[in-house]
Design a protein that fits this description.
This protein is α/β, with parallel strands linked by helices. 38% of the residues lie in helices and 11% in strands. Helix 4 packs parallel to helix 6 and helix 14 runs parallel beside helix 15. The structure holds 6-O-phosphono-beta-D-glucopyranose (BG6). The site of 6-O-phosphono-beta-D-glucopyranose (BG6) has 14 residues, from loops.
Length: 489
């Protein structure tokens, strides 16, 4: 008996982006500053410090960023200027045959401070134009409500998501955009990589460590409020757009025990569960029993209001989406072993069997098949690969073209593993490559960490013409989509 490896007919092939890394135009048409608009990039700073802000922002850094006289460079304010290039960029996505485009709505274009009672019409009108352009090209929008870009005011004046008031501000934003775009957007995601709060609480839940001496409490209280907000947004979305599909989105970094020693197996299981309980809550509608023990060990006492558990139970998500870039290993005794280099700030022990990217991320296509099977076994809900990609140093050749065969290889190997997962019986309905066009890196704020099929002429300090050029991978992905994933030659 053979098992079909074919992608379903209506499979959503596309690319994924986030407003804060792409749009630029941070002060245009009434936009307010977001949490991500205060990340600097300094080419003269030692490389090993480039991830520091991502791990934790300080008051002094935020205050300096709010000062119009600051001389620092803030790359996410500039993005790749999609705000003024969206027609050209979407036409290029259409040329590749995109069926869908994952993007986020910048909360600060709609509610610049986050606590206003009325939305900003110019911000709403911008996304009307974007969605209309996508429709013109038959590209389905897949929209994240929150992708590391909450209004900065909600961080500085409200102390972020540990404050329950943020649920109301988020719901006001969510219902405003559901109503406005009810005829234009069917697929929604409530929070990008909701499980990453443990690594970068500032950008995930708006927590500046100095404000929250009990950091673990602040992180998980913030996450609890996001769970409630996500469930209520799911409810509202279904009411306003009956045919809508709402998903959760987690970062799924597959973990392997470093050895078969039972202590390593247990350490690995513990680490993986800490990551997966976020989608457990959102997809199954309840905290797993073991989290009580974990919270006790961390000294966390969740403040829940009466009715919270019922809200989580009643309004789980329709589908589960995730980002998948890499795997790493876990040891009960990490101090004796070599750690992964440059693997974001997620840590882990180096896997001797895997190659790594220019940024030290260990490349593991087979881990994607495992991830898909694990998540499908666990939730039995449709899955969507919301991010997968290779950040690399791209050097244009003498004709100005980027011959990125390494990116094609990465993509081919991951698509092959999705085929295997489909043959295993996994219900997978979409795949969006991160990111189809070069933009600012989330973690290091570099432009030179390029993922795109489309090269953008801009350097790490924001110099360049912004000209868009097709890379070799552009034509390759186009062929893959045209053959619905069958032609990987
Ligand atoms: C994911 C984020 O974690 O990884 C994206 O959702 C991000 O926003 C992507 O861009 C790649 O990470 P980086 O740091 O290389 O841009």
């Amino acid at each position: 008996m053979t098992f079909s490896k074919s992608f379903p007919d209506n499979f959503l092939w596309g690319g994924a982006t986030a407003a804060n890394q792409l749009e630029g135009a941070h002060d245009v048409d009434g936009k307010g500053l977001s949490a991500s608009d205060v990340f600097i990039f300094d080419i003269n700073a030692p490389k090993e410090t480039w991830l520091d802000q991502w791990a934790g922002m300080t008051h002094a850094q935020v205050a300096e960023a709010q000062n119009p006289a600051s001389k620092k460079y803030y790359p996410k304010r500039k993005g790749n200027d999609f705000y003024h290039h969206y027609e050209e960029d979407i036409a290029l996505f259409a040329e590749m045959g995109f069926k869908c485009f994952r993007m986020s709505i910048a909360w600060t274009r709609i509610f610049p401070r986050g606590d206003e009672s009325e939305p900003n019409e110019a911000g709403l009108a911008f996304y009307d134009r974007v969605f209309d352009t996508l429709r013109k090209h038959n590209i389905e929008p897949v929209v994240s409500l929150s992708h590391y870009e909450m209004p900065l005011t909600l961080v500085t004046e409200y102390n972020g998501w540990p404050n329950r008031k943020i649920i109301d501000f988020y719901l006001q934003f969510a219902t405003t955009v559901f109503k406005r775009y009810r005829n234009k957007v069917k697929y929604w995601m409530t929070f990008n990589e909701i499980n990453c709060v443990k690594h970068h609480p500032y950008v995930s839940v708006g927590v500046i460590e100095e404000n929250h001496p009990a950091l673990e409490q602040a992180k998980y209280q913030g996450a609890h409020h996001q769970f409630v907000a996500s469930a209520l947004a799911t409810k509202a979305c279904h009411e306003i757009i009956p045919e809508s599909k709402v998903g959760c989105m987690i970062s799924y970094q597959i973990l392997y025990p470093h050895t078969c020693h039972p202590d390593d197996i247990q350490a690995c299981e513990d680490a993986q569960r800490v990551s997966l309980f976020f989608s457990d809550v959102q997809a199954r509608g309840a905290y797993p029993a073991w989290t009580e023990r974990m919270f006790a060990a961390k000294g966390v006492e969740l403040q829940k209001e009466r009715g919270d558990d019922e809200i989580l139970r009643q309004y789980p998500v329709d589908f589960v989406s995730f980002s998948y870039y890499m795997s790493s290993t876990v040891s009960a005794h990490p101090e004796k072993l070599e750690g992964v280099k440059g693997n974001l700030i997620t840590g882990g022990i180096r896997n001797p069997y895997l190659p790594e990217s220019d940024w030290g991320w260990q490349i593991d296509p087979k881990g994607l098949r495992l991830a898909l099977n694990q998540l499908y076994d666990r939730y039995q809900k449709p899955l969507f690969v919301a991010e997968n990609g290779l950040g690399a140093v791209d050097v244009p050749d003498s004709n100005g073209e980027v011959q990125d065969d390494y990116r094609i290889d990465y993509l081919r190997l991951h698509i092959e593993q999705m085929q295997e997962a489909i043959a295993d019986g996994v219900n997978l309905f979409g795949y969006t490559w991160w990111g189809p066009i070069d933009m600012i890196s989330a973690s290091t704020s570099q432009m030179s960490k390029r993922y795109g099929f489309i090269h953008v002429d801009q350097d790490d300090m924001g110099n360049g013409t912004l000209k868009r050029t097709r890379k070799k991978s552009f034509g390759w992905y186009k062929k893959v989509i045209a053959s619905n994933g069958n032609d990987l030659s």
